[in-house]
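### Sample
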Amino acid sequence: MALRRALHFVFKVGDRTKTATFYRDVLGMKILRHEEFEEGCKATYNGPYDGKWSKTMVGFGPEDDHFVAELTYNYGVGEYRLGNDFLGLTLQSSQAVSNAKRLNWPLTQVEESLYMTEAPGGYLFYLIDKELPNCDPVQKVSLAVSDLQRSVHYWSALLGMKVIEKNEDKKIALMGFSDNQCKLELQDIGGAVHHGSAFGRIAFACPRDQVSYSNISQQYPFYLVSFYRNVFVLQLPDIEALMKKEKQKILTPLVRLDTPGKATVEVVILADPDGHEICFVGDEAFRQLSAVDPKGNDLLDEAMAADKSDEWFAKHNKQKASA
């Protein structure tokens, strides 16, 4: 098991029904779990909102070994303003291309065997027209940066990511914690990065259990770990302490999040030099929390059927908020 692993990217959605159609019927993903909440999350998982919201995890397979999407829906918000921060999510699936064509979902051919499409809300997705691979079909998440060298330093020297490819001419760097995980692509856009209200968040798991020196010494800088009884222990508090030492931004200091009837997870939420939100969560508890719920699909359908917010706003001649 990789010491750190990519988990998911968070998308704010204003139209849950159209969004479900895109992920289920176009991309061919499965609903892994769905939860409803009456009030905002103290780790701001649903953004800076206090009201009722829901979280839906969708992907091609279990969260233990697949990079997935977290869809957060705030009942009173109908749309979000896009920034230039999120450049796209790339996945490999000829079936997704076929589904889009069959359903008349807009597709733009970028190059041979590569198509671009949009999820509801304007989020870009790139579809590689090849059969599903044996591993996770999600290949990479692409984010905009204003200074590639600075960002590569942050993600590699401070967070321990490996630089897999770097193209100075195109100002692009491909990075990851391991070769068999979803990668992070950073692209220098030559200007400021604006996040809008639709800004997302990328999440990674970090183990709390003890690991041997041989498993860690060649993957992470020495200062990311602490020595104890001939083993090295990589912990969330170490990440928080390092960011404080390096005077980097911490959005949410280490916090415990309780979910009734489920595991309690610990998270630290950071911001990179361009303000991209990064969530590190304790791996062991998260594996328990993220177990696939066989009722997830039905729970989402039930929640959408019970959601009368659009009807209420229409009846009162009002519109949902535009964040």
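The chain has eight helices and 21 strands. This sample (Glyoxalase domain-containing protein 4-like) is used throughout the tutorial notebook.
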